[in-house]
Amino acid sequence: MTQNLTITRLAPxxxxxxxxxxxxxxxxxxxxxxxxxxxxxxxxxxxxxREGPNILGYGGYWKVSDEAxxxxxxxxxxxx
Length: 80
Prior knowledge:
The chain is 25% helix and 41% strand. It contains 2 helices and 4 strands. The chain has helices spanning 15-25, 32-40; strands at residues 5-9, 44-51, 54-64, 67-75. The model has no long low-confidence stretch (mean pLDDT 91).
């Protein structure tokens, strides 16, 4: 059973492991630049799922007014 799961906001240091998951999963095709730009957008909220220090997945949404649009949600294939 998986233990010690936490969800934290995406930080600049998380981009490399998140990008690696993106490439492994092959779901969306975002580049590093996409993730960097999301950190700068006021409407963007991105989070990472961690087990201890390891990132297992990530997800994000755009919050506009009283609505949210999910932009992507990806779990590493080995953690599914």
